[in-house]
Design brief:
The chain is α+β, with helices and mostly antiparallel strands and 296 residues long. The protein contains nine helices and ten strands. Strands 1-2-3-5-4 form a five-stranded antiparallel beta sheet, with helices on both faces. The protein has a three-stranded antiparallel beta sheet with strand order 6-8-9, covered by helices on one side. Helix 3 packs parallel to helix 7, helix 4 runs parallel beside helix 8 and helix 8 packs antiparallel against helix 9. Helices cover 40% and strands 14% of the residues. It folds into two domains: 94 residues, Phosphorylase Kinase, domain 1 (2-Layer Sandwich); 177 residues, Alpha-Beta Complex (Aminoglycoside 3'-phosphotransferase, Chain: A, domain 2), CATH 3.90.1200.10. Strand 1 and strand 2 form a beta hairpin.
Amino acid sequence: MTETETPWGRILSSALAGAGLPPIAAQARPIRIGENAIFRLPGIIARVSRQGQARAAQREVDVARWLANSDFPAVRALPVKQPVLVEGRAVSFWEPLPKHSPGSVLDIARLLRELHALPIPDLELGKLDPLVRLPERIADASGHLPEDDLDWLSQRARRLRQEWDHLPAGRPWRVVHGDAWTGNVARCADGSIALMDLERCSLGPPEWDLVSTAIKARTVSWLSLEDYADFVEAYGGGEVSTWSGFELMRDIRELRMTTYFAQHAEKPAMRAEAQLRIDCLRGRRGDRPWPWTPAT
C-alpha cells in the first residue's frame, strides 16, 4: 500500500478512540505526508509514523514530557496514554503551536546549547544511530536510479558504519536532537521558539547536531560563512569542523541527505536531485560546495 492509498481517516479514528480523545478524525487536514504523516485536527496535532516505528514514537513522547518537566522550549505531547498503535503505525497527539515560521540558525544554536547542557534523563533513549534506515531508503530507490549507483551507496553506508565504530573522542555524550535544522525549529509570532520533531533524540556526541549546520555552509552554500560564524559563537565551545571526527560525520550527513531524495526517486524532480547528489558524492561534479537544492 502506498502512502497515497493509506486510509488515514480510519487510522486516526482508531487512534483517537484509543487515546480517549473526541471522534474528530473527519476534520483532519494534512500538514505534511513525509517520513511521518502529520495532521491538524481541532485543538490537536496528530503524527502518524511509518510502520515499524513504534519505539521511536514512544521515545519521542517520553522526550517531550522530559523536556516539558525541564522547562525546555519544545513541542508538548498531550497528557493522554500514547502513542497508540494502529495497523502497525504509531500515532501520537500534540499541542498545536501558535502561528509560527521556521527558526533561524541562531535559534538552533541557542536551543542546542540549552539541550546539550541538560542532565541525561532516566529514559530508554538508546544510542545515536547515524545510519538508521539508510538500507531501506536505498532499497526504495531500486528501479528508479542506476543499480551501479545504488550499489555504491550501499557500500559507502557499510564503510561509514565501520568507521563510526571508531569515531574519535570528542565532547562528552549528551542528549542530542539528531535532526537539528531550521525546519525543526518553530519561531512563533510572540517571539518564542520551540524545538520540534523529537523522534531522533538519543544519547550521542553533541557534534552530530552541530555538523548539521556546518555542512550547510561547507558542503552546500545554503548558509553564508558569516551566518555560520554567528552560529558557532552563539553555541559556544569552538568550531566543530576542526575536530578530527568532523569529516566522518560530514560524510554520513551527506549520505543521509542524498538517500532522502533517493527513496522518493519515483518522482522525476526527486530523482533528478538524487542523481545530482550521487554524482557529487562520487566525484563527478567537482569539489564542495555543491549545487544541491534544499528539500521543501
